[in-house]
Amino acid sequence: MVLWTTEVKAVPPNSANDKLLAILACPKCHGSLKSIDEPEGFACESCGLLYGVDDGLPNMLIDDARPWPEGGAEASS
Ligand SMILES: [Zn+2]
What we know:
Largest sheet: 5 strands, antiparallel
Helix content: 10-25%
Distance between the termini: 23 Å
CATH topology: N-terminal domain of TfIIb
Bound molecules: zinc ion
Mean pLDDT: 79
């Protein structure tokens, strides 16, 4: 498991996603989120949920979150 948050300070500050990640936390577990490009969104590795982006704004509703990674743990059944 990568301790992603420890690497944030090394990332250039001109990324919109990085700015969002500085203020966004998982609404379910309050853990740090990981920016995902495909599909676009913010993933919580603790919960295994992906919060999507609607019209350029993160949708942080737990009810709208999808399982992540897609086809991950559930696909093994
Ligand atoms: Zn979480």
